[in-house]
Amino acid sequence: MLIKYTYPIAMLSLVLLSGCNSDSSSDTIATHDLGYTLAVLPDTQKYSRYSPERFWAQTQWIADNYQLQNIVFTAHLGDVVDLPREESEWDNARRAFASIESNPETPYSVLAGNHDILAYQTSGVNVETNYDNKRDLTQEPFLQHFHPERLSSFFPTVRGSDATGFNTYHVFEGGEREYLLLALDWRPSEETLVWAQQVLDDHPDTPVILTTHQLLNVDTNDSPYFMEQGVTFWDSLIAKNDQIFMTFNGHHHGEAFMEARNNQGRKVLMVLVDYQSGFWGGNGMMQLVNFVESENKIKFRSFSPWVEAIPEEDREPQDELERWIFEVDFDFEERFSNFNEGGAGSEPGAKVDGVIGYWIFDKDHKLTNPSDDNELVFSDLSGNGNAFVAKKNGFPSGEQDEHLVLIEGAPEFGYANGSLQLNNGHGVGGYYLSANTTMLPGNGVLEQYTVEVVVRLSDDWSEEQNAWGAIFAHIPSATSTINFHDIECSEGESCQSDDPTVALTSSSLKEFQWISTSLNGVGPSNWSWEVDKEYWYHVVITNDGQYTQMYVDGSLVMRTGETEQHGLIATPGGEWAIGISSWKGIPGSFFRGDVAEVRIADRVLDSSDWLINQ
Q1: Which of 20, 133, 459, 477 is least surrounded by Cβ atoms within 10 Å, i.e. has the fewest?
Q2: From the CA atom positions of the chain, what is the Rg in Å?
Q3: How many domains does the chain have?
Q4: What was the pLDDT predicted at 231?
Q5: How far apart, in whole angstroms, are the C-alpha atoms of residue 85 and residue 123?
Q6: Tally of CB atoms within 10 A around 228
Q7: Is 434:515 a contact under the CB 8 Å cutoff?
Q8: Of the candidates 195, 78, 200, which has an alpha carbon nearest to the alpha carbon of residue 142?
Q9: What SS3 class is residue 177?
């Protein structure tokens, strides 16, 4: 359901200033003489509960300085209050927003965080899974105080909401441009994601900022990584919609910035900002994001209006005026032109017809830095949302960045500019890449396929430590996948195997082995010859609906295509992996070596399209 509020778009005041000073701004805070500014209010829950005057100071400063600072829009990131059943906290928040509600030129958006919904204080209800479509809309205080119909009575920038009212979109002007801002609930349902996609489809040429409560987290090294909810946002909306160029979220304490690349290979600036764990719940700290098109830069600065109002001689040591000041190069014309023109397959290797999964494991195509269990992420360049995420297995000796290392080494063919080095053995544990996705279309069946893997064995690969480790695998056992598809095997066919459903392994004799399960059961493995260490190989497996064939460096291997195998099957939602095999559906046996690219197509590709020929 798409509820729209229709008015003419308001042209917000943008004043280009030169050396001006505001009566309400000290000389310490430089005014912006170029561009326009987005104000961001992270979690205000501690203010609403303990110190509302700091919340009031933030919005009053916006009301007083929106022209001087060229503030064209304000976005709140959720957790408006701390305890949703305490009416006094909502009253404090309403008073804060009243400062900017009185002027149509100071529009804002607001969304619900986990502290803003009744499930947070309801016994027996898990707030983590209390999606927006599971709530009693007549009882939720967030909707009683910040219903989109109420906001639309103040601001023509409110353009529509979903059926629940927890999700809204806004359109505002910045300079000569029109921007769309999505304000999405902290736990959006599938229906909400469909609604958001419809909004994006209806505005194909409008740059989009996505705001929500939980998306990125930050580790102890100040490096960002995706939470599970973040992966959902990335796969469902951000990666495949080129209009989304920036995201903001709060929830996790601290600040972090990530420059990701979407399925079109273009920048997505992703920001986590949340000061609630600091002095006095953040001490009035907010963020100002200045868009300076004349310099092709976006400038970030966190700033406290509350501290600014305190005479410098009266400030305590903890009274921080500003922090986290940085800028990002951003070519507005290039980034905002030809949205989605290349489609999800704008990477050359994804442009081949039939490609349904494609990953390049180099520094240019990672989404995060490898330093936490769930931090190293590679998106699916085919646009089908099958992201691979770093995962721990067992009890590894050493940290993730010792086991999974992005290196410069890459083959002379293909599209990778580096590779992922997997430094695992068969010890007590290690790390690999994991994807719990449908991967194969429909119900997990490919009538035909091509799988390509670009790989080399490490110089210290050993039979004792690394035999039978999988480069690429589908973790569920072949038996379980066959049972899922209700396949009945004929005489001479096998329906029983504890091996992984699909796997490319390195055998005890340094051979590549392809294990696969098809519509007529488990087929015989395909085998290469004994391969060398420290040499880049291109391995191709094809199936034309009847026979499976293996090629290494373009040459057909000897032990292949022995019996009929009808396509490929998988368990929908079952785990896929890079760097580990399995037995009886339990991950184990790590691969040791380097992987540069993996690609899957739903047909037999002509050899001219193979990665080795690029």
Answers
A1: 459
A2: 27
A3: 2
A4: 76
A5: 13
A6: 10
A7: no
A8: 78
A9: strand
Confidence of residue 220 (pLDDT cuts 50, 70, 90): low
260 and 353 fall within a common domain: no
State the helix-helix crossing angle for 87-101 and 52-65, rounded to 10 degrees. Answer: 10
Could you tell me the residue range of the domain that residue 66 belongs to?
A: 42-335
The whole-angstrom separation of Cα 453 and Cα 599 is 7
Does residue 253 sit in the same domain as residue 353? no
- Give pTM, 2 decimals: 0.63
Structure tokens at 588: 């184990």
Same domain, 528 and 592: yes
If we measure between CA atoms, which residue out of 244, 254, 247 comes closest to residue 277? 254
Residue 443 sits in the same domain as residue 329: no
Is-contact 591 506, C-beta < 8 A? Answer: yes
DSSP 533: B
Identity of residue 159: R
* 202 touches 196 (CB < 8 A): no
- Which of 274, 300, 335 is the endpoint of a domain? 335
Q: Which residue has the tokens 């086991």?
A: 403
**pLDDT band for position 265 (cuts 50, 70, 90):** low
For residues 324 and 310, is the Cβ–Cβ distance under 8 A?
no
Q: Which whole number is the average pLDDT over 186-208? A: 98
Helices and strands, number each (H, E), in the chain: 12, 38
Residue pair 99/60 in contact (Cβ under 8 Å)? The answer is yes
Least confident of 286-290, 367-371, 473-477: 367-371
In the Cβ-directed half-sphere of 554, how many Cα atoms lie within 13 Å?
9
- State the pLDDT confidence band at 345, using cuts at 50, 70 and 90: low
pLDDT band of 440, cuts 50, 70, 90 = confident
Do 325 and 446 fall within a single domain?
no
Distance, in Å, from the CA atom of 96 to the CA atom of 303, rounded to the nearest integer, reads: 17
Q: How confident is the model at residue 331 (pLDDT cuts 50, 70, 90)?
A: very high
What phi and psi, each to the nearest 5 degrees, are found at residue 305?
A: -60, -30
Q: In the prediction, which pLDDT does 12 show?
A: 31
Give the closest residue to 255 by CA, choosing from 227, 286, 211, 295: 286
In a domain, 492, yes or no: yes
Average pLDDT over residues 552-571: 94
| 118-122: average pLDDT | 94
- Please count the residues of the chain: 614
Question: Are 97 and 59 a contacting pair, CB within 8 Å?
Answer: yes
Please report how many Cα atoms fall inside a 13 Å half-sphere around the Cα of residue 439, on the Cβ side: 30
The answer to whether residues 109 and 168 touch, using CB atoms and an 8 Å cutoff, is yes
Distance CA 91, CA 530 (A): 73
Answer yes or no: do 300 and 353 share one domain: no
Q: The tokens of 95 are what?
A: 């008073």
In terms of DSSP H, where are the helices of 429-474?
Answer: 463-466
**Amino acid occupying residue 385:** G
Which of 48, 33, 42, 135 is CA-nearest to residue 87?
Answer: 48
Share of the chain above pLDDT 70, in %: 89
Residue of 323, 336, 181, 331 whose CA lies nearest to 247: 181
Q: What are the residue ranges of helices labelled H in 331-404?
A: 332-335, 400-403
> Residue range 529-557: average pLDDT?
97
Is there a single domain that holds both residue 504 and residue 602?
yes
CA atoms of 257 and 603, how far apart (whole Å): 40
Give just the sign of the alpha carbon dihedral 16, 18, 20, 25.
positive
Contact by Cβ (8 Å): 168, 199? no
Q: What are phi and psi of 363, to 5 degrees?
A: -65, -30
